[in-house]
């Protein structure tokens, strides 16, 4: 329950004021049966959103990398959503959101009504640093958030543990 409350606080706006937006850009999604992708890079962090969308019309979307203002266990956030928090009318046949340069912690996709997708509609693949649709995906996403830990922080923690021994 505590995690759900934290999650709702974190995603209460498109890019929260609680952190610093390190990089963002808009891109356009056009209905197309082929798989497309877009990415954003900040320092050693790369977030890649791959999708296949049908129906609706062209829509502007945003992809961004956020770093929290306060030190938390999740050091970086990748986010993709319809620009301006507007409702999407696209039907997504597939999606995946991947991070490189950091270690995957957790993700939460949301539907076009900004409701969290049930866990039956997406699969988290921590070893691949990604989240993607499941076989039970019902074709609706309006936002996807992926939290990760910076690899440098993890390496520093391992070094400090060794020094303690």
From TrEMBL:
Gene Ontology annotations for the cellular component aspect, listed alphabetically: extracellular space
Keyword Coiled coil among UniProt keywords: no
Keyword line: Signal
Pfam family for this entry, one: UPF0556
Region forming the signal peptide: 1-16
InterPro entries the UniProt entry points to: MYDGF
PANTHER family on file: MYELOID-DERIVED GROWTH FACTOR, MYELOID-DERIVED GROWTH FACTOR MYDGF
Name of this chain's protein: UPF0556 protein
Species of origin: Mizuhopecten yessoensis
Higher taxonomy: Eukaryota, Metazoa, Spiralia, Lophotrochozoa, Mollusca
């Amino acid at each position: 329950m505590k995690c759900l409350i934290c999650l709702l606080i974190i995603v209460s706006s498109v890019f929260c004021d609680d952190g610093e937006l390190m990089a963002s850009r808009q891109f356009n999604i056009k209905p197309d049966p082929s798989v497309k992708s877009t990415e954003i890079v900040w320092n050693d962090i790369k977030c890649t959103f791959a999708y296949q969308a049908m129906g609706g019309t062209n829509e502007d979307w945003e992809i961004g990398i956020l770093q929290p203002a306060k030190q938390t266990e999740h050091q970086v956030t990748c986010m993709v959503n319809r620009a301006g928090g507007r409702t999407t009318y696209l039907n997504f046949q597939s999606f995946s959101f991947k991070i490189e340069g950091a270690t995957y912690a957790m993700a939460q996709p949301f539907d076009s009504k900004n409701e969290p997708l049930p866990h039956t509609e997406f699969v988290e693949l921590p070893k691949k640093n990604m989240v993607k649709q499941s076989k039970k995906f019902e074709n609706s996403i309006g936002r996807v958030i992926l939290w990760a830990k910076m690899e440098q922080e993890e390496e520093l923690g391992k070094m400090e543990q060794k020094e303690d021994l």
